[in-house]
Amino acid sequence: MSRYVVAKVEDLPPGERKVVPVGGKGGIGVFNINGEFYALKNMCPHKGGPLCQGRLRPHIVSSETYQVKYERDNEIIKCSWHQWEFDIKTGVALYDSRLRVRTYPVTVEKDEIILHLES
Ligand code: FES
Asked: What whole-number distance in Å separates Cα of residue 102 and Cα of residue 90?
């Protein structure tokens, strides 16, 4: 497994992301969600759009008509090409859990965010 230094922790605050040019075409997006780091391949499994450059969204749930609740703010990424949505923490598509985008392990070591890639 190889390591890639993404940034200093202070340079990627909560709610921010950074796309790094590793892991093949499109690179990998690294996200800070409330102080925890997650990484997704920057290629949408639908038609290959730049998924990690889409809008960050909450998870919107509805238990009955006209009742809408917003949960997990900024934990969902919406692809800008055709609006498919994915859970950043797991890579799973919201509307069909059989679909997912590749995820990668991320750690913090000595104030640096480290992305771990298979060699
Ligand atoms: S390419 Fe991402 S939703 Fe179509």
From this structure: 9
Distances (CA, A) of 41 to 10, 29, 64, 86: 23, 6, 34, 12
54 CB near ligand 1 (under 6 Å):
no
The response to whether residue 38 sits with its C-beta less than 6 Å from ligand 1 reads no
Per the structure, how many domains does the chain have?
1
Q: Which of 43, 78, 81 to mutate to test the pocket of ligand 1 (most atoms within 8 A of CB)?
A: 81
Query: Per-residue pLDDT tens for 40-73?
Result: 999 999 999 999 999 999 999 999 999 999 999 8
Other beta carbons within 10 Å of 57: 17
pTM for this entry:
0.93
The domain spanning residue 73 has which CATH number?
2.102.10.10
